[in-house]
Amino acid sequence: xxxxxxxxxxxxxxxxxxxxxxxxxxxxxxxxxxxxxxxxxxxxxxxxxxxxxxxxxxxxxxxxxxxxxxxxxxxxxxxxxxxxxxxxxxxxxxxxxxxxxxxxxxxxxxxxxxxxxxxxxxxxxxxxxxxxxxxxxxxxxxxxxxxxxxxxxxxxxxxxxxxxxxxxxxxxxxxxxxxxxxxxxxxxxxxxxxxxxxxxxxxxxxxxxxxxxxxxxxxxxxxxxxxxxxxxxxxxxxxxxxxxxxxxxxxxxxxxxxxxxxxxxxxxxxxxxxxxxxxxxxxxxxxxxxxxxxxxxxxxxxxxxxxxxxxxxxxxxxxxxxxxxxx
Amino acid sequence: xxxxxxxxxxxxxxxxxxxxxxxxxxxxxxxxxxxxxxxxxxxxxxxxxxxxxxxxxxxxxxxxxxxxxxxxxxxxxxxxxxxxxxxxxxxxxxxxxxxxxxxxxxxxxxxxxxxxxxxxxxxxxxxxxxxxxxxxxxxxxxxxxxxxxxxxxxxxxxxxxxxxxxxxxxxxxxxxxxxxxxxxxxxxxxxxxxxxxxxxxxxxxxxxxxxxxxxxxxxxxxxxxxxxxxxxxxxxxxxxxxxxxxxxxxxxxxxxxxxxxxxxxxxxxxxxxxxxxxxxxxxxxxxxxxxxxxxxxxxxxxxxxxxxxxxxxxxxxxxxxxxxxxx
DNA sequence: TTGTAAGCGTTATCAG
DNA sequence: CTGATAACGCTTACAA
Lengths: 327, 327
Prior knowledge:
The structure is a homodimer. In chain A, helix 7 (162-174) runs parallel beside helix 8. Chain A has helices at residues 5-12, 16-24, 31-44, 50-57, 73-88, 102-116, 162-174, 190-205, 222-234, 245-257, 291-307, and strands spanning 62-67, 92-97, 119-122, 142-145, 156-159, 180-184, 215-217, 239-242, 267-272, 285-288, 315-318, 321-323. By secondary structure, chain A is of the alpha/beta class. The termini of chain A are far apart. In chain A, strands 2-1-3-4-5-11 form a 6-stranded parallel β-sheet, with helices on both faces. Chain A has a 6-stranded mixed β-sheet with strand order 7-6-8-9-10-12, sandwiched between helices. The model of chain A has no long low-confidence stretch (mean pLDDT 92). The first copy, chain A, has 3 domains: 1-47, lambda repressor-like DNA-binding domains (434 Repressor (Amino-terminal Domain)); 50-158 and 293-318, 3-Layer(aba) Sandwich (Rossmann fold); 162-288, Rossmann fold (3-Layer(aba) Sandwich), CATH 3.40.50.2300. The first copy, chain A, is built from 11 helices and 12 strands. The interface between A and B is large, with 42 and 41 residues. Strand 2 (92-97) of chain A pairs antiparallel with strand 2 (92-97) of chain B. The structure holds a DNA duplex.
């Protein structure tokens, strides 16, 4: 039978209050008593019952990470960095993978907010904040990461890609490319919307009419990158902007299959959420998201919010970096 | 203020016991009372306090996943599949990333077993079970995955690669390749040891003496794959066996850099822990690990162990598949 | 410098 | 079929 605080108290000949205070360092205890208590703890191999403690204190030292696709290296990278940062602050990480599914996300939020977690970091699959708000108790510590549902006001960390996308597309135009295709990601996401706008604005400012045939709606998976690229090649593009790394993988796979060489036969600009494999490095132009940085900041932010609920909401916006030579 | 069970009981005009039983379906409740209770629950937007419940029951419905490197796609894949499987059974996943660090692994185990988790799935970085045994309370549900520390007896799920590695190397030999290099992974791991043996045995059975200059000790990271490949090329290999996907990425990167074409200038056989990117597919021979399958089985196994502690220990061994044409 | 005792919100054991 | 009520193990006023 696992030892409890009363056993320690009995053995050390003190009250349970004293034992508790020795453990938590929460009030002065004489050297002598402390030693007796510590000895008893060792002798009994005692460790506090975490469930009892969190029941009593209301804190579980657990943070939830609600991600749309853990299989996507971008979100896996964020996961890793969050875990790392949280462990520094004495928190552990509970992972919920929603697979871009509304119901799974809501179920996850319900669960996490029902007493499982002290706070949540979420990359929501919802477009509007009102759709998840009912499942986030008021004042529950939440940090939105990467994506920002419309109408949300509060803590968030994300990367603003509008300017970088616009500049990259403008750059293509300046070099004489005019038939510039675009493979978009899931349209309801704020991150997608921003990239849409960057693409459109660049064309607009150059006086190039938007050709709907060159805009492909992808679904953020590799397969759709492949399919969209195929259609764009058939439509005769000489350059393309791709909205995320996963689809870029698929798209480049297609280019490779039909012998088109990037940088020579076609220009490719892609968002880069994570490191690329070899081969892909040379000629592809990339807009790199500081994923780790984002994750670290988000983790710090939840912890701060938990430990100081009065803090005003903070919106952190990072900038991506454009690599014309590839990475 | 969040509603509690007493509020519901009061509103429905029943005892808290009845409310509890309605919620948990743990004893018969008349239709009438049930409806009253359910109505009150909705009206008050009540949900049970999970902390109180787990304090009382001693169950937290949380499983720990202790992985050596979440950044490695292999372990990320396993993570994803574990999460998926566990959620089916009503469990959530707590992730601890040890980064192949002894201290982090021990700290993680201490934490998880101290009341955080009901069970643990672990790919240990330790060679011997005796080193972690002190941190795993007797009868604590544990499933070892992928790696099997020496001396461990109990639940485990892994892939046996000895036969496949031996066959693949023998195949190279049969085709006339004799200078076959080997890039090994972290030597203390059971998974590495098995592959070592497969490689050695194949040479042995063909009567080829082992040339130490052709055996490189890697560290499971991409960089070391690159460096080891360089040395092997300098040593004049015409084929190579690589012990994991991550190092294979680095190794192939080197081959690419110096213009050596796989399948023509050099044969490459590699363990394949996860999907490859394009380009790498064609000529590389792979030994594919059923990572997802392994993860699913491990998750099911912890749950079974938790729900039926009497169950005899079960060791599950899966077989990899050899793809001579690549994937 | 330390002890006493009141809860925290459930579940589960009795009784009825 | 339902209700009282005693735990569960800890933290934290309040007392001394």
